[in-house]
């Protein structure tokens, strides 16, 4: 077998068998496949598409290109993955809530991508928190605490690392087949028994249209199940930020308020319960998703999820007193400026993508791979769809490193809000459930 032969077959519309896909994934990991060949492969998949067995085959092969964890624990190993959005800090609440319900959650997460925030960047706002740990430490921490949210080490799905970097510069990121194999190869390498997927749709999601979100959700569920992991997807709304803040430390504040009951955000609470309920049902810890949602709500309400979060933070190098002292422990930006509504009316629509880009512009996300993130900057008190505002009233607060940065971000934020007459159409939080 050789790379050229495999690419030619793909180009000519022939189907690839598992042996060819495994050969290619191993070649990506070992370096036997060149960047040019990886790019041609990705383009052929994007143009011709994969069949379901091919998508499952590539996912399995990329998963197996590195370490695949195995577990012997008294409870199920579960996880959640989100396709990404703005103000989406669900993972930080859900992982400890699942752990409090008896699940084990080795949550291998990513950094921000484009206009969306990343779970690892949010956690990096907590002083001392280590997101880079060995697989050995991930295993022991998950077994001991019940959850560990960390980055993928080099030995997890190395074929995906190679292919992802090539896709990024070859115009092939958008392929649903490749997105599916990329996301799932990393997630399934954690040795999961059940996975719940949060596929976002709307102005702040990568999938702006319902048809695209549904196609991605179906591909993800079908492929994960084909690869042997019980999986459910919820298509959830991203036509506005999930919480009223966007930015790393600012979202951790929202998380801590919800975990400690000092200021619950209903959308964050409800989505956490819905996704967690699905995961507990998959793992046999609840009779069904509704029962699971009730269990997650109890874990949040009782403070058990908060305790798990505090334990995880302390074990990973963060402050031992984070649960009690989080307001003093998080960085704050030196400039805080109000963004004012240019006219009176009701918030009819929000360009959530633009809000995400405003946060990136403030330094809360990356424009280039090597950019350093400023954890303190971002937006808070963001007005929601349906909110009534008077002319000159506040639409959001900008947290910035300088007055100049704040002015630039404020202009982008004002432009992101469509304010008009009459009541707004409010979208449901969960649009669809895909089994
Ligand atoms: N996240 C991934 O890990 N891979 C993709 O291709 C897209 C999002």
UniProtKB/TrEMBL annotation:
Keywords: Glycosyltransferase, Transferase. One of its GO terms (molecular function) is 1,4-alpha-oligoglucan phosphorylase activity. The gene is deoA. Homodimer. Belongs to the thymidine/pyrimidine-nucleoside phosphorylase family. It catalyses: thymidine + phosphate = 2-deoxy-alpha-D-ribose 1-phosphate + thymine. It comes from the Bacteria. Pathway: Pyrimidine metabolism; dTMP biosynthesis via salvage pathway; dTMP from thymine: step 1/2. Pfam families: Glycos_trans_3N, Glycos_transf_3, PYNP_C. This is Thymidine phosphorylase. Its EC number is 2.4.2.4. One of its GO terms (cellular component) is cytosol. It is an enzyme of class 2 (transferase). GO terms for biological process: pyrimidine nucleobase metabolic process; thymidine metabolic process. It comes from Rhodovulum bhavnagarense. Residues 346-420 form the Pyrimidine nucleoside phosphorylase C-terminal domain. The enzymes which catalyze the reversible phosphorolysis of pyrimidine nucleosides are involved in the degradation of these compounds and in their utilization as carbon and energy sources, or in the rescue of pyrimidine bases for nucleotide synthesis. The keyword Transferase applies. Gene3D superfamilies: Nucleoside phosphorylase/phosphoribosyltransferase catalytic domain, Pyrimidine nucleoside phosphorylase-like, C-terminal domain, Transferase, Pyrimidine Nucleoside Phosphorylase, Chain C. InterPro entries: Glycosyl_Trfase_fam3, Glycosyl_Trfase_fam3_N_dom, Glycosyl_Trfase_fam3_N_dom_sf, Nuc_phospho_transferase, PYNP-like_C_sf, PYNP_C, Pyrmidine_PPas_bac/euk, Thymidine/pyrmidine_PPase. NCBIfam families: PRK05820.1, Y_phosphoryl.
